[in-house]
Amino acid sequence: MKHIYQAGSNPNAPVLLLLHGTGGTERDLLGVAQHIDAEASILSVRGNVLENGMPRFFRRLAEGVFDIEDLKLRTEELKSFIAGAAEQYGFDRHNVVAIGYSNGANIAASLMFHDKDVLAGAMLHHPMVPLRDLQLPDLSAVKVFIAAGDNDPICPPQETNELNELLTGAGASVELLWESYGHQLSRSEIEAAKAWYRKMFRS
Ligand code: MLT
Q: Dienelactone hydrolase domain location, by residue (predicted)?
């Protein structure tokens, strides 16, 4: 997969896996990652699917309607990519924390829905429920931060609550931040994600 890897100055810090939103690239979240942990290594990936020229991590049939077969395939593909990158770059694949926005948050959630140890944690900015009717693995070692907007036209509040319940029900530790915004990534939610991350992974 097209990506950027930057080795950090602190080998004990998690590797930050950056997953952009629809129409984004592997460059979008570099500034956010630098702000959250300037010492961490970064693996930033570009989604392999194109929708009218816009990169995504999996196909959708319509706005908010996902192609579940493709989502499963792409989740597996990303999981193998992370394992391969860990070998290539020599990082610990059990110490990966995702930062995902929108479509990128959705595939990060799908990684956790399918596997208990691909991600040690995730900051999910405006995620949806990636898929339903799946037995989630035991996520009791996984830490998740969710930022949501109560005026989000793409992800309604009940879907955020459903995602929180599914992850919590599988044993994950979840912190949920509500803001009175829409689907955009706000400065204040990045600050909240940073505070959460420092507490969970760097204290
Ligand atoms: C998705 O398709 O993953 C969600 O609708 C969010 C987005 O627009 O990327």
A: 77-178
Nearest to 44 by CA among 77, 1, 14: 1
Summarised one tens digit per residue, pLDDT across range 149-171 is 999 999 999 999 999 999 999 99
For ligand 1, whether the C-beta of 116 sits within 6 Å is: no
The residue segments making up the domain with residue 120 are 3-201
55 CB under 6 A from ligand 1? no
pTM over 0.90: yes
As a dihedral over the C-alpha atoms of residue 62, residue 66, residue 70, residue 75, rounded to 10 degrees, the angle is 140
Closest ligand 1 atom to 128 CA = 4
The best mutation among 102, 110, 124 to test binding of ligand 1, ranked by most ligand atoms within 8 Å of the C-beta, falls on 102
Give the CATH number for residue 153.
3.40.50.1820
Which position among 41, 44, 102, 110 bears the catalytic label? 102
**115 labelled catalytic:** no
- By C-alpha distance, which of 94, 3, 77, 2 is closest to 42? 3
Helices (H), 12-156: 30-36, 68-89, 103-114
Q: Name the band, by pLDDT with cuts 50, 70 and 90, for residue 6.
A: very high
Nearest C-alpha neighbor of 128 from the set 144, 142, 108? 108
User: Which protein residue's CA is at the shortest distance from atom 3 of ligand 1?
Assistant: 103
